[in-house]
Amino acid sequence: MRAPTAINVGSKRTPHRRCRRLGAASVLAALAGVTILALPAGAQVHNPPLAVNVVSVSPGITATYQFTTLDNHADPTFNQLLGINDLGTIAGYFGSGASASHPNKGYTLAPYSGMTYTNENYPGSVQTQVTGLNDMGKTVGFYVNAAGDNFGFWLKDGRFSSYSAPGAAGKTKTTQLLGVNNEGMAVGFYNDASGNAHAFELDTKTGAYRPLTIPGGVQTTASAINDNGDVAGFYVDSKMVTKSFLLRGSSLQILSVPGASATQAFGVNDSDQVVGQYTVGKSTFGFIEQNGHFTRINDPYGPGATTVNGINNLGDIVGFYTDAAGNTDGFVAQPVYLRTGA
Fold it and tell me: Is the pLDDT of residue 73 over 60?
């Protein structure tokens, strides 16, 4: 889950383990076995490849997932990966933000072109998280200043822009941008004077603002937007139950995992595959949802403690899990496709 804290960025690039993407010809397997990603020596991969779930992606083809742990060496104890674009670039941050000595520090990561981490922090901020990115070189996120106020931001061509939503109020003000599409449309939320969250959509090119209201929602967060303009997010109803939504124009779909005490959607791709997390008892599981069908996602090193935050149009997912030592580790998982007949 994205903690409402912020980020700080410098210019240092931290090398990491390498991995590369399979070519399209290697993805489909003609045999009834799993095609394993070709990863160079030194990549941190969970072996054997874990078929966490079987996900139907088209008639006759199913997919399993291969997980790779990605932790910035600047802080291997706490990393969250929050978004991934179609180029394979990932947005995230390290540092728990629990104390002044452990602040959030934002970064982007290019694992398929040399495992390069690039720091991204809003100038003068105390904390920063990079929460989303598109294929056009724009990132979004939020930062915290010395007074504890949260502001949304976007970065394009080396220039930062800060944003505070109309209605943001309270002793400390909070606005967060959580996702952006290729048209520059961003989504997020702000808190009012009572601390209630309100979802909105923002055109980062023109500044046009649009509130997003979900019927029955006491508090609402918009967390992702795809290139069709479809918005995914979550809300808390009058009974304090957390559910998710997918808003497609005037069509609203409510998403709630059966038996879960909370369902939170964090990402959506152009096929309206929605990802997020749900809670059952004390356990948290990632999920992929499409057409009303939920698939559980567990990182093998964090069963019952996994969150999926982002998905791209290739089906790659990113998120984080809590390991046996109590560390928060980022992961990327790629689908490994099998042909199972027509």
Answer: yes
